[in-house]
Amino acid sequence: MPALPRFMLCTLTAFLATTVASAVTPAPAAPVRPVVDDYFGTKVVDNYRWMENLKNPQMQRWMKAQADYTRATLDSLPGYAALLKRVDELDSSQPAQVGSLQIVAGRYYSLRTPQDAQSPKLYVRDGVKGKDRLLIDPEKLPGNDKSHYSIHAYRPSPDGRYIAYNVSPGGSEESTLHVLDVQAGKELPQTLANVGGDAPWWRDGSSFFYERRQELASGMPDSEKYKNEFVALHVIGRDFDADPRIIGNGVSTAFKLDPVEFPEIFASSNSNYAIAFISPGTDPRLRVYAAQMAKIKDGKTTWRAVAASYDDQYIAGDNPDYPVIALSRDTLYWLSRKNAPRGEILKLDLSKPDSKPETAIAQGELPISAVYAGRDAIFWRVNDAGVNSIHRLGLLKGAKPETLTLPYAGDAADVSTDNASDGVALLVNSYLRSPAYLDLDAQTGKLTNDGLQPAGPDDNADDLAVDEVKVKSWDGTLVPLSIVHKKGIRLDGSNTAMVTGYGAYGISWSPFYFPAMRSWYDHAQIIAFAHVRGGGEYGEAWHLAGYKATKPNTWKDFIACAQYLVDRKYTSPRKLFAWSQSAGGILMGRAIEERPGLFAVAVDRVPMSDTLRFETTANGPDNVPEFGSMKDPEGFKALYAMSTYAHVRDGVKYPPVLIYAGANDPRVPAWQPAKLAARLQAATASGKPVLLRVDYDAGHTGLDATRAQSDRNTADMLAFALWQLGDPDFNPR
Asked: At a CB cut-off of 8 Å and minimum separation 6, what does 8 contact?
């Protein structure tokens, strides 16, 4: 298809949208029922407040009609069936997809999804080169035919006799705790619903700690759901209701917790101590305490304060998903920012009551983002604009720090260690290779691919290259931009390009590649990753430059990166596709509102879009540290600035948008994306589609999705984008 002038392409796209939509019954417009809120003298109109009641029959009918319309529209695209088949072939090209590796006493546990499976199953092998043995198959659990079950977390006992694991239905993250007796090959009869986290075991494998949530009484608002959590101690064979509470709000006499603080306990199989840490939600700082395992009985346990306040030692990392505490024998290691903005690792000998923290690893030029402990060494991650390296320090006297050298350019995403053996494995990602686990030789420091992740035919993208550039943002700040593209492309503005970003919680956008991404490169030339402020690419300072009042930097950086791709003729506005998800919905929504003509199409997956109302959700209170509170003037000002929903304007020519919602989403409830879809549908003057895609057996961002769901997610996103970008394979003839 020859290139068309921009005005003609827009006209053609609008015509094609009408043609496809006419083949199915149009989705209904949402009724407008204005509610006016007065926030500290600023009046804000909310036309769709009624949608927040997801049990409202009218809301349910409207969402179902929207979902049916979107499904029929996408399915009717000429190239859709072939694209879905291609995605499935690529996604199934590896013999198995492997993740969540844990090494315990020389045994390698992992969640593996074989080619013919829909959901990850738990396997174990003896040694890194052992044969995999199936332990738990969630597809065989009763009720899986009604809503798919996923293993949400698991933890083997140190002796391998038991496995405590959480199972959730339909991506809901509503976990039920089970215990498998591996030796007997059967489940123990005791189970417990409404739990969170995993289950750290005592050294003898007789008991474990677990997190338990309060039961919501009738009439309690959603915002109470995750308050007043507590940690209990379970002894194998005992009824869960008989378990003593160890820490929680109103439980421990050693320290107090607020209702919105989250307690956890961490233990190690080679240590006499357990570590209790308290989190204030999405604030990365922690309060930390230690106690002898043998003396932990109930809420009267005596705990030693390591960091009694959130500013004491400032235990925190760049990414809340990675560990900032490690325990090896009786020495505690942690990542501190109190006197080192880029992070230093401190250590404390817990066996000596009068011991003081000492520096184990000093601050460097780049930020430290995580710390791990093995039997004979500690490891730490160093972040450089989203690309992480791993460093090691042996625990024997005289050992010196060393950097582990990857066999190819990549990102060391995570480290799995063992307190009972030399077993260490690195999860390595790349823009050009599928993820792989590399086994570490403890003596030589050499990393080898020993086949934990079996290879597939589409693992290596040999036809791609990466350009790493720095983009000047609106205020002069240089923002990293990673441009992955087909080799030999011409910079003439004709390339089809995708740009994505996130920018929240200090989470870095790091390299990744999966075979299913080939389905995009079949039709396009570029994927660009914008490392915007609000992430952790340059440590906590980068995070703080894109949260609360500074949040506008996040989407302004994204706009600058998108504009760079146009200015340098990697692509053009009529060829540029933007997508993000979850908290990245703030970035996505505000970017298309400030620069609607810069993007030809956008996909917004489970977006946090109505930030002024997010605090009323179950996940809202613990997100206040990241985004602010509508209950105070400064918090309202920041939340209003970042609200996509509040800034939709009638008569603006918005680009076509596909919006995802998960009916079981516990993090961003489905009414958030639904309200945005209704508002955009009513407001846009471009004549281009705004579609709401609802998955009724799914939760957040595809978390715990089956293979079929994941393939549909990918195919829907790409088909919608290619249709609106004018790809002839996806437009009616």
From this structure: none
How high is the pLDDT of residue 319? 60
β-bridge partners, 448: 439
- Whole-number Å distance between alpha carbons of 144 and 686: 43
* Residue 218 pLDDT class (50, 70, 90 cuts): confident
Phi, psi of 166 (to 5 degrees): -110, 135
Token pair for 575 = 């060829």
501-506 mean pLDDT? 96
Cα–chain center distance at 727: 31
Report the C-alpha gap between 101 and 155 in whole angstroms.
11
Q: How far is it, in rounded angstroms, from Cα 621 to Cα 517?
A: 36
Report H helices in 546-598. Answer: 552-567, 584-594
With respect to residue 549, please indicate whether it lies within any of the assigned structural domains: yes
Distance set, CA 283 to CA 261, 287, 501, 610 (Å): 10, 11, 21, 21
Q: Is residue 302 part of a domain?
A: no
β-pairing, 230-235 vs 262-267, is: unpaired
Q: Which amino acid is at 560?
A: A
The whole-angstrom separation of Cα 732 and Cα 722 is 12
Q: Which of 107, 105, 113 is nearest to 148 (CA)?
A: 113
CA gap 614, 608 in Å, rounded: 8
Q: Is residue 577 part of a domain?
A: yes
**What's the rounded Cα separation, in Å, for the pair 201 and 351?**
20
- CATH no. for residue 637? 3.40.50.1820
Do 729 and 523 touch, CB atoms closer than 8 A? yes
CA dihedral 622, 626, 627, 633 (to 10 degrees): 90
Q: What is the DSSP letter of 349?
A: E
> Do 592 and 654 form a contact (C-beta atoms < 8 A)?
yes
pLDDT of residue 556: 98
* Angle made by CA atoms 606, 607, 613, in degrees to the nearest 5: 115
H-helix segments, 256-299: none
Q: Please choose, from the candidates 402, 464, 403, the residue with its C-alpha nearest in 3D space to the C-alpha of residue 433.
A: 464
- State both tokens at 524: 């396009």
CA distances from 182 to 113, 148, 149, 420, 446 (A): 20, 23, 20, 19, 33
Distance (Å, rounded) from C-alpha 575 to C-alpha 525?
A: 10
Integer Cα distance of 475 and 556 in angstroms? 9
If you average pLDDT over residues 5-29, what whole number do you get? Answer: 46
Residue type, 135: L
By the 8 A CB rule, do 466 and 484 touch? yes
Could you tell me if residue 158 is inside a domain? no
Cα–Cα distance measured from residue 329 to residue 325, given in angstroms and rounded to the nearest whole number: 13
Enumerate the β-bridge partners of residue 186.
181
Query: Among residues 398, 380, 265, 389, which one has the least CA distance to residue 324?
Result: 380
- Domain residues for the domain of 499 are 24-90+459-730
Number of domains in the chain: 1
- What average pLDDT does the structure give for the chain? 93
The label of the residue with tokens 């390591």 reads: 306
Largest CA distance in the chain: 79
Q: How far apart are the first and last CA of the chain?
A: 12
Prediction pTM value: 0.94
Q: Which residues of 401-414 are buried (b: 16+ CB within 10 A; e: fewer)?
A: eeebebeeebbbbb
Q: What count of Cα atoms within 13 Å lies in the side-chain half-sphere of residue 571?
A: 29
CA dihedral (718, 723, 727, 728) positive or negative: positive
